[in-house]
Amino acid sequence: MARLIIVAALLWLGWLFYRRLKRQRKPHPPTPASGEAMVRCAYCHVHVARHDALEDPHTNELSRHLPGEKHWFCCQDHQARFISNGPLPRRRSS
Question: What is the mean pLDDT of the chain?
Answer without folding.
Answer: 78
